[in-house]
Specification:
Blueprint: E1 4-9, E2 15-21, H1 23-26, H2 32-45, H3 105-121, E3 125-128, H4 138-147, E4 154-157, H5 163-169, E5 175-178, H6 185-190, E6 193-197, H7 198-201, E7 216-218, H8 219-232
Parallel strand pairs: 1-3, 3-6, 4-5, 4-6
Antiparallel strand pairs: 1-2, 2-7
Helix pairs in contact: 2-3, 4-5
Length: 233
Amino acid sequence: MAEVKAPLFAADGTAKGEISLDADVFGVEPNHAVMHQVVTAQLAGARRGTAKTKTRAEVRGGGRKPWRQKGLGRARHGSIRAPQWVGGGTVFGPKPRDFAQRTPKKMKRLALRGALSARASEGAIKVVDDLAWTEPKTKTAKVLLEKIDAAGKTLIVLGRDDRIAFNSFRNLSNVMIAEPGQLTTYDVLWSDDVVFTTETLGHAGGSGYGVSDADFVREEAQAAAQADAGEEE
């Protein structure tokens, strides 16, 4: 399986090199049928299902026969609340219901990893080394996104303790914030860029993958390696 990498940035947006991604999460072949089914189930589960119409038995009025059965040359009717009358009941109208669809956990996990892998293959996965900002400022978050080239719809994956970063990103338009355990296939496919922190990266896709120092390829290490290669030549 080919190695998958993503660009690594500092909290101010400066490039720091690259970081290796878990191939079991970011390097799988996307299963489009499973992704479609999971997204459909998620959107269906978001429906409230409260629409309701009244049948002819529930509409007020219409208890008296509008005119006698025979002798007037008119069509026979028994109630002015029949479906063909204006103001009458509705036939086969919507009733309150639950639109939720059962989706196995393994299917959700496969779909999420397929979506993350698709974004990784497009170079849309970005990692920020640390977001230890001292105070929440929307301008700081906006500058960061501009420097890492995440100008479109962006999904920010933050840890539960990143309250300052959360307050900095929450007022930006086209920005969605989620915790690693709240990531869904629809959220990943909705976004143009997915931004992780080094802390939340290891929890993506429901894996136990942990980020270590061996995963980082920083700018200084790259420069030293190039210098060594030049001396050998």
